[in-house]
Backbone:
């Protein structure tokens, strides 16, 4: 693990928000939300559907982050969900030259979605009752108003967590504070 390096290019993690009958996909980077969409009611998030989502994500990266798209310097980070790991998905990503940052199994502490975006969603939605799916959608899209510096802080924290994981050689650790020293952090 000593040879592991946290990439310095822009990373776009994906997050799926699930409720009883609804799912939303959010993709963000250090500057903010890049793409989000709600899964149509009754649609299963399978490999075919996720490929369509990634095509739309690529178009959003092309328009919102043209400098990253032009030199192919963005990296996708998604979890190990079955739809993300199938052969057809890996072939699609290779064909489109989309670099993927592998996510270690059973490591929610290394997922910006778990330590950053989910708590933001809970802040926005906590203790509220929603009348219908449109009400949920309009309130969830408030995530687009998160200030850029909070996204930057998220990625700095993510970098620290990766370094801690590498320093501990993948062994369990708790919290962000430790006696483990990181060069440059």
Residues:
């Amino acid at each position: 693990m000593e040879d592991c390096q946290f990439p310095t290019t822009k990373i776009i993690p994906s997050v799926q928000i699930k409720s009883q009958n609804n799912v939303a996909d959010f993709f963000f980077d250090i500057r903010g939300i890049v793409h989000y969409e709600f899964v149509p009611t009754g649609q299963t998030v399978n490999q075919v559907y996720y490929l369509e989502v990634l095509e739309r994500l690529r178009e959003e990266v092309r328009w919102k982050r043209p400098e990253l798209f032009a030199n192919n310097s963005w990296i996708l980070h998604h979890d190990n969900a079955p739809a993300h790991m199938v052969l057809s998905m890996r072939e699609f990503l290779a064909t489109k030259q989309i670099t993927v940052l592998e996510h270690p199994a059973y490591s929610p502490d290394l997922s910006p979605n778990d330590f950053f975006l989910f708590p933001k969603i809970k802040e926005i939605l906590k203790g509220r009752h929603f009348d219908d799916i449109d009400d949920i959608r309009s309130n969830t899209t408030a995530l687009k108003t998160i200030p850029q510096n909070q996204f930057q802080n998220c990625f700095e924290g993510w970098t620290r967590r990766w370094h801690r994981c590498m320093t501990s050689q993948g062994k369990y650790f708790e919290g962000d504070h430790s006696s483990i020293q990181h060069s440059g952090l």
The longest strand covers residues 10-18. The mean pLDDT is 79.
